[in-house]
Amino acid sequence: MIVSTMHLRILLPFRVFLDETMVGGIVVETARGSWGFLPNRLDCVVPIEPGILGYRLGDGEPKFIGIDQGVFVKAGPEVTVSVRHAIGGVDLGRLRSAVDEEFLAIDEREREVRDTLARLEGGFIRRYMELRNE
């Protein structure tokens, strides 16, 4: 079956950020570079990186959304993007800097928290083993 448009939904943990029909093409950023998706592309699941998701409406008008890391799922004409955070309504120049400031800073803070928790856990296990050996 030949399909000429897709239905794009961007889901956040707490709401639907975008529900757009008549999408002609989508471009997302992954760890291996940018990937483009057209309506008749085979179905797939792709992990996505923080960056800019671009899509083109059926009339050719380009739109851009800043997204955090997540998962891109294409199943027939249905495309679902599940991410933790998204930014819209900003021009393309400011969108890139907003993504860098917001989402990459969050990832850095999360990395620091995970490192701190790992050190606490290691200290707890070490003390537990010392007490057990006494």
Describe the protein:
The chain is α+β, with helices and mostly antiparallel strands. The chain contains one helix and nine strands; from the N terminus they run E-E-E-E-E-E-E-E-E-H. Strands 1, 2, 3, 4, 5, 6, 7, 8 and 9 form a nine-stranded mixed sheet that branches. The longest helix has 42 residues.
Summarize this entry quickly.
The protein has one helix at residues 92-133, and strands at 6-11, 16-30, 33-37, 44-48, 51-57, 62-67, 70-75, 78-83, 86-87. The chain has 134 residues and is of the alpha+beta class.
Q: Which SSEs are present, and which pair or pack?
A:
Layout: E1 6-11, E2 16-30, E3 33-37, E4 44-48, E5 51-57, E6 62-67, E7 70-75, E8 78-83, E9 86-87, H1 92-133
Parallel strand pairs: 1-8
Antiparallel strand pairs: 1-2, 2-3, 2-5, 4-7, 5-6, 6-9, 7-8
Provide the β-strand percentage band: 35-45%
The rough form would be described as elongated
Average pLDDT works out at 85
Into which percent range does the helicity of residues fall? Answer: 25-40%
Q: N- to C-terminal separation?
A: 72 Å
What Rg is obtained from the alpha carbons, in whole angstroms?
20 Å
Low-confidence stretches: none
The biggest beta sheet is recorded as: 9 strands, mixed
Tally of helical segments: 1
Total strands: the figure is 9
SS-based class:
alpha+beta
> Could you state the order of secondary-structure elements as H and E?
EEEEEEEEEH
